[in-house]
Write a structure and sequence with these properties.
The complex is a heterodimer of chains A (402) and B (339). Chain A contains 17 helices and 13 strands. Chain A is an alpha/beta fold. The longest helix of chain A has 20 residues, at 2-21. With 339 residues, chain B is mainly α. Chain B has helices at 6-41, 47-74, 91-103, 112-141, 148-160, 163-173, 180-187, 199-227, 231-239, 244-272, 276-281, 292-302, 306-331, 335-338. Classes of the chains: A alpha/beta (402), B mainly alpha (339).
Amino acid sequence: MKKFLTVLLVLVMLMGIVGIASAKVNLILWTKEGEEALDWNKSLIEEFMKANPNITIELVKKTNVEVLREDFLTASLAGAAPDILWTVSDHAGPFVAADIVEAVDNLFDLNMYVESAMDAVKLEGKYWGIPISNGNQLMLLYNKKLIAEAPKDTDELFAVGKKLTTGGNYALVWNQTEPFWLVPWLGGFKGKVFAEDGVTPTLNTPEMIATLKFLHDMKFDAKIVPPECDYDAADTLFKEGKAAMIINGDWSISGYVSVLGDDLGVARIPKVSATGEWPKPYTSGVYFMLTKGISGDKLKAAQDFIGFVSSKEKQLEGVKLLNRLPAVKEALEDPLITENPILKGSADQMVVGTPMPTVLEMRCNWDSMKPEMLAVLADTKSPEDAAKLMQSSAESCIKSLE
Amino acid sequence: MEALTAEVAVNTIKELGSMVLYIILGTIILEILVYLVLGKIFKSKYTLPYMLMIAAIFGLTMLVIYPIGYEVRLAFTNMSLRHFRSYTLSWAQGLKNFGLIFSEPVLKQIRFFPLLFRTLLWTAVNVVFHLAGGLGLAILLNRQMRGRGFYRALLVCPWAVPQIIAVLAWKGEFHYEYGFINVMLKSIGMQPIQWMISPFWNFAAACITNIWLGIPFMMIIILGGLQSIPLEFYDAAEIDGASRWQQFRNITLPLLKPVLTPAVVLGIIWTFNNFNVPYMINANELETTDILVTALFRAAFEYHRYGFSAAFAMIIFIVLFIIASVYIRITHGLKGAYE
């Protein structure tokens, strides 16, 4: 036994020497993706590594965007950050504030990317990410078997919804636990989460109160949504055909296409009847970000890989697989997009969207909106009190960021 | 995430191999250094003992002493997301950090003292139920009965399941639509409970989960204590005409004290510092379910107030130290350890 262990230890050490001595360029890529998108990540990396045998890319899947953000900050502090991130634009704010990502201005030809996508990661006059896909916006997805056409405004939504909500079936489902789903309606009521300066929270406003009242009415008066519904519950109900409509993002489309096929419809979130405005979901996208200080062979390899993913061919491959809008201008004009009804619907929603703020203060806004929105939806707080607390919470949180 | 292919295995062994190699190389360098400095320069007679201990001393310094020192240093800085790489270290900043804990909300709305009160309530509720449940079950199991081993194994199960898995399973059971508690409530015609949204019920859900998880530990400890009490005491008490209650109060409880005290102290420390249960059950990040350690985590890793959080962590340590000291002093529970 002793001999065996000694031999094993020597073998492991020898392989270690081989590992240390290896001359390959090794990149570590952290991704926020799951399911189909993760498979695409893998196939892109495999194909790239086959064409570039001297480059190895290790793909690490992070459970979700929050975990990716926290882990990247911790790893950067410890000096063990990955080389490339495949993540969302709102991470630009905290990562730029912490000075842990590299500006990409002089590293790529930025003219080839869609301007709105580039603007989403522009902070302090520089660009901090390379877009992979554009959009990330919420939209109305519906099951044509249960509802032939999407309602045009909220009055119609409530009227149709009441008919569709019967015995365990619901007209509409959405993630009632995240304020990301509140924001489109706030836009529909002409509200914004920040003042003109982009950093002062404006959460205790008549528009926010009207939005909270509207969501409360949807649940307690019209009763067209489930009493409690998180992301997974909404997703399951829609996939099982127990919900006629869902408000979800472009990342979910491919999953629904595989379940519903041609019965999946995509439309704008219904217009708010009280104001005549379309709800304004946040738009952003999925981006590559480079860790601070990346240089030499690693930077070259990262540039090559990002260039590979930004090619028209790969961008369209992503569109086909994931139904997300591309970030490269050349790919956006392809008939694959202009003639696809689902992508057309998605693009139609994006037109009325609004870019998601990436400043650090947004974190405080999200965290302040969430518990109060939940309280209104649990019927334990009035919209007026909730809006007041949202504002004071956000202000106190922003103060603590200094 | 990835399937275990030959390539993955080889890469893993390569990485592991390099790490083992570095550790061995480091140890050899350390040993040579100690030998040269103590043995050759100072000609110390303790060279061999120091050579034997140096690896452990180095490991403990790096893994325990350095992080604590770093934490204390961090408490005197303004390190945050805006001052991530270039932070300032000063006494004034340290005092400011400690002052902020008591003068401003530690998160968004919740202040330190309500949070401390909630943590004490959380600890008290859990430890009382752990103790009552554990004692009750231990007494039931500490007698001749058929299938005793089976019951014991069954009751230890929650302790054997990894805590994260158990908490995730419970979280699923608190689901409004699909959780078994609400399904059962609905089936008997009652209103389902909003476990994840309602502040009271979310806190209750965390308590229920932690009580379920903690009872087996107490049961095993108390059962061990019960089995060490000589039966002669009970025989003598019966001859003297003592009732069951009198036997429990005057024999069982006093003789269990040396076992119960460390178990309760541990229970208090573990529950007070329990992170997994209140954090995971609180899926919607309600401040009303946060206890000190979860608030500390959020302050540090969600709001990135590193300097403030380090000071906050030191305050939590002091609170816990005082509680444990007071409890040990009152119960004289560790008397046996010193005599």
